[in-house]
Design goal:
The chain is an alpha/beta fold and about 250 residues long. Helix content is about 35%, strand content about 25%. Strands 4-3-2-1-5-6 form a six-stranded mixed β-sheet, with helices on both faces. Strands 7-8 form a two-stranded antiparallel sheet. Strands 9-10 form a two-stranded antiparallel ribbon. The longest helix is centred in the C-terminal third of the chain and has 17 residues.
C-alpha cells in the first residue's frame, strides 16, 4: 500500500492560512520514500503582515535558504493542491496520515474554500497518527520516561506531542522538532513506522485520547465525631450531587 504523511504550518488556529505544506509518499511494505515535497504558499509568503502573525514567523530565513537550495518550491495554494492530487493518483495513495490530523484537515478545508480549489483529501481518507501512538506506544515505560524528563502538558498530564514521542522512541532528549512541514512529516512517518512495528494496522481505527492522565496520589484525612482519624489514598474523588456519598479512586 502507498500512503502519504503530511503536515502544514499556518498563521493561526482560528483562521489557519497555510504558508507551508510538506508531505512524503511511502511504500508501506519497504517503508521507502517514493516522493517528498515541500512548498511555501505564495499568497501568504508575500503578505508580510499575515505571515508575520504566524507563531513560527521567525523561521522565515529557513524557508529562504530552502528555496534558494531548491529543496522547497514556492507556488500558489491551488497549484500545490493540484500537484498533490496528481501525486496521489500516480502513486495510488490509499490513506493519508497526520499528527493531530483534525487540525490539518481543518487547514485544507479552510484554505480550499478560501482559494476556491479542489481538496486533495476529498478522495483520500486521513488518519490521526496520535491515535496509533496512544494505543501502541503509551505504556508504563513511556510514562516513566516522561516522569524522568518532566514531559508534561500545561494541565499536568503526560505529553504526547510528536516531539516527546520521537524523543522517547530514539532516546534522544536533545531532539527539537523543526516545525517546518516536510521535516515534521518525516519524523511523524518514523513514529507511524514504529507503531506499525508494534502491531498497529495501517487501516485500523484507533481512538485519539483527549489527554494521557498523570495520576497523582493524594491523601484524604477524615476525623469522626469520636475523634478517630482515618486516612485514604486516592487519585480521583467524586462527590454525589446530594453530597451523601464520596467515592475515591
Amino acid at each position: 500500500m502507498k500512503i502519504c504523511v503530511f503536515d502544514t504550518e499556518t498563521t493561526s488556529l482560528d483562521k489557519p492560512f497555510c504558508y507551508n505544506i510538506g508531505y512524503v509518499i511511502i511504500d508501506s511494505e519497504s517503508w521507502a520514500t517514493l516522493c517528498r515535497r515541500s512548498y511555501v504558499v505564495e499568497q501568504v509568503w508575500h503578505n508580510l503582515p499575515l505571515f508575520s502573525s504566524a507563531y513560527y514567523a521567525d523561521k522565515r530565513p529557513l524557508y529562504v535558504a530552502a528555496m534558494r537550495a531548491r529543496t522547497t518550491i514556492m507556488d500558489k495554494f491551488g497549484y500545490i493542491c493540484q500537484q498533490m492530487i496528481r501525486d496521489f493518483k500516480n502513486y495510488e495513495v490509499k490513506i493519508a496520515f497526520a499528527y493531530n490530523s483534525s487540525f490539518d484537515e481543518k487547514v485544507f478545508s479552510f484554505n480550499c474554500d478560501w482559494y476556491k480549489c479542489n481538496n486533495p483529501f476529498d478522495t483520500v481518507p486521513i488518519k490521526d497518527i496520535r491515535g496509533y501512538v496512544h494505543q501502541f506506544l503509551i505504556d508504563d515505560e513511556y510514562k516513566s520516561f516522561c516522569d524522568t524528563c518532566g514531559y508534561y502538558t500545561e494541565t499536568g498530564n503526560y505529553s504526547s506531542t510528536a516531539e516527546t514521542v520521537y524523543r522517547y522512541i530514539f532516546n534522544d532528549t536533545d531532539f527539537i522538532e523543526a516545525h517546518t512541514a516536510l521535516n515534521d512529516s518525516e519524523i511523524e512517518a518514523e513514529i507511524l513506522r514504529v507503531c506499525i512495528e508494534q502491531g498497529a494496522a495501517l487501516e485500523g481505527e484507533y481512538k485519539t485520547l483527549r489527554s494521557i492522565e498523570k495520576k497523582v496520589e493524594k491523601t484524604l484525612h477524615v476525623r469522626t465525631p469520636e475523634q478517630t482519624d482515618y486516612y485514604f489514598n486516592y487519585s480521583k474523588i467524586r462527590i454525589n450531587k446530594d453530597k451523601t456519598e464520596i467515592v475515591l479512586k
